[in-house]
Design goal:
Helices cover about 50% and strands about 15% of the residues. By secondary structure, the chain is of the alpha/beta class. The radius of gyration is 18 Å and the shape is globular. The N and C termini lie far apart (about 50 Å).
Length: about 270
């Protein structure tokens, strides 16, 4: 079949994405910082998908030099999933500069570098008959004002717009290449990413209203995302609640939206 490179692939959405592509016959490369978690994930997946190749790469994508190392080692891929990311709650002006810059580098700069590299490689080839391209894991929080998310919401807004722009450019100039660039914008996902103490109040509230699917499983998000990608969609927003919220928030005054998000988040940081 083909090859899929997934950053942040050792757990959460990245691991769930790997399962979805393995189900479809793809070989996968999982890149992440934690060697032990990568090895555990490979062992678990390889037991089930014995006839497919699962590679792992230990790398820290907050370090710019590692971007070139990754692309030199894995020079071609059919699908890139830019999933690696980090979050930091708090007031923007109180955030340490290193954390701020690492967050921007991981959430926005690294996906752009990898995306540009692999899209150029894909454009050099003829249409293979199956959709190739990129899934950039943005966030629903990047689609509206989100105070107290420091770099997270702004970087995800950037990544969403970057994805949409690149997709349009490819369609206008290389429509026959079968390449899609999709922005994945999930809401709250029940992973270690939201497992830190500061998110526990939010998780408790989401589980209280479980019927609304406020807190989605990574498996659900990955399943929805991969289906939408192969349908050629521009943006995937899993869950009816978040699809509806995305539409409704457009009609709210910006100041009101800011106030609602701030009041909802301030309890998480204090």
């Amino acid at each position: 079949m083909g090859k899929v490179l997934i950053t942040g692939g050792s757990k959460g959405i990245g691991k769930a994405m790997a399962v979805e592509f393995l189900k479809r016959g793809y070989n996968v490369i999982l890149a992440a910082r934690n060697k032990q978690e990568l090895e555990n994930t490979k062992r678990e997946l390889q037991e089930k998908y014995k006839n497919q190749i699962i590679e792992i790469e230990v790398t820290d994508l907050t370090v710019e030099e590692n971007w070139n190392i990754l692309t030199e080692k894995y020079s071609e891929t059919d699908i890139l999933v830019n999933n690696a990311g980090m979050v930091k709650l708090g007031r923007s002006y109180e955030t340490e500069n290193k954390i701020l810059l690492d967050g921007i580098r991981l959430n926005a700069e690294a996906p752009c570098f990898l995306g540009n590299y692999y899209v150029k490689k894909m454009l050099e080839k003829e249409n293979t008959g199956s959709i190739r391209g990129i899934i950039n894991v943005s966030s629903v929080s990047g689609l509206f004002p989100h105070p107290l998310s420091t770099f997270y919401s702004p970087s995800k807004f950037f990544l969403d717009q970057y994805s949409c722009n690149m997709r349009y450019e490819i369609q206008r100039n290389h429509k026959n290449k079968g390449i899609n660039v999709m922005s994945l914008c999930p809401g709250a996902v029940d992973t270690e990413f939201t497992g830190k103490e500061k998110f526990l109040k939010m998780k408790k509230l989401c589980r209280k209203y479980s019927g609304l699917n406020l807190m989605m499983s990574p498996e659900y998000v990955a399943r929805t995302a991969v289906k939408d990608f192969f349908k050629g969609k521009k943006r995937s927003v899993p869950g009816i609640f978040y699809k509806t919220a995305r539409v409704l928030v457009r009609f709210l005054p910006e100041q009101l939206c800011m106030k609602l998000m701030y009041e909802g988040m301030v309890k998480e940081i204090e």
